[in-house]
Amino acid sequence: MTKLYKNHHNRLKIILIVCLSFMLVSTIKTFYLQVFKSQDKSIEIQKIVKGDRGVIYDRNLTKLAYDINFYDLYLNKNEITDIYSIKYFLNEYFEYNTSNLDSIINISKKSDVLIVEGVPYYKIDELSEVLKLYPQIKKSIQYKGRYYPEKSLASQIIGKFSHKNDTIGRWGVERILNELIKAKKNKLSFSVTSRGRIKKRFLEDEYLALSGQDVMLTIDIEYQKILEQELIRQMENTESKSANGLIINPFNGEILAIASVPSSNLNNKLKEIELIRDYVCNFSYEPGSTLKPFSILAGMKNNKINLEDKYFCENGRYKIPGLNRKRYIQDHEPHDTLSVNEILAHSSNIGLVKVSSDIGMESIYNTFREFGFGQRPMLDEYSTSAGLMKDLNKWNIHSLVSIPIGQELRVTNLQIGLAYSAIANGGYLIKPKLFYKKNHNNESSQIVRKVANETDLDKLVESLKLVVSNGTAAQALENHSICSYGKTGTAQVYDKDSRAYSDSLFISTYAGVFPCENPKLVCVISFINPEVDKKWASQSAVPAFREIINRIVNRDQNLSMDIAHEIR
Q: Taking the model in full, what pTM does it have?
């Protein structure tokens, strides 16, 4: 028994020793593989790395465009158990239009159907628990793309850079400054372990060298929100086809807000080019009465008229003398005799035509040219339209009747904004500005030329104040607490087919300056094709202007303090 026990005990000892030896060898081997051998097998490779595209900022360093990581979402159609639940999820969390989802699923030849593109990484993180309830929905491999946090705000100016495949911007700043902000590619060194794991080896400076340069715009995104919201509100109120406008500093030319609505969310796929077109800088139109102040100024500059001169306004209907065919000019309300001041305040076409006859073609032409009409504004590298104003040698008696009242020529709202800035700043036409250079603190406004003297402009401003206090803008701005001045314009749209001005298509515009003393801002806004019974600028553009300046003053404490002494 004892011998048997000893033999058994010896066998157990042998087995135990063998096991311990095996474990020791395994441990040593693992340690060797993980430490010594992995170090021995670590190699350095080079891999193509692409940097980040430059950030686009507003003037206050609010990000308007930058690179982040995205996912695409796919729906496995073979795993669908409750399509209605999936539709609810997509609509609730992604505002996905599910009306075509069934047909998309049926048409697809693949089991995994692409349903949502370009979902920001943080949204996937936020929905991680919800996504667990929908195992049929799968996310793609993460990829880098362009993100626009303000969505549709300033979309025409910022432009678009696709988050896939594109190497250049499609329009706007993304296209214009592409060479400056685009990311570069290069080979950088990586360390690879024996197990195939890549460790980053390249320096941060090496990566930054591949990234594009950041850009700062003159745009104030808060001003931009105010402008767009009020344009949309009044566009809906007047049932207009579209609306556009800008807010500009009249002394340095910095554009603080610029908008065309409706606009599009830059994070979405965009196809309708009309929704992304910049109507402020590149859409020219016959402006109507907003150009009348410059016609009158032409006469003042050449001492051909005084603002107190009186003209008979024919009680609202006037046949132009000296023409081979009958042509009548009408006012929107009848007037007897008006001074030049009153002609401007009440926007009398008849009065202005008679005044222009005394001023003459050459004086009006030269003044319009001096104020920049018919010339392309140099807005940094941004594309702008020159509008249309024919040479003086092509003017005739029809031109002398039409052009002073804002017909037979085409302008952009950017040109109007710059012209009214010259009135506000003491007579200097300046270059507009949309981008800051690298050392923008040392930048100063660039004067194009002197266009008028301060004495004439002071008189003209007093006349423009009458537009607000007793003229075409009075109803919308009566009892308004902030002193401003400007000019309305309700222009009929010329119909090429009928070769006549339409009775149903109008563009209603207001160009306003505020405050009256030491002006800070110029605002120009237009509404395209409002309902006929809401066609007058006093019904559309002026109320929008009032709300815009109210909101800006309430928001901007510094501006509020500057104009406090002007409160009426």
A: 0.84
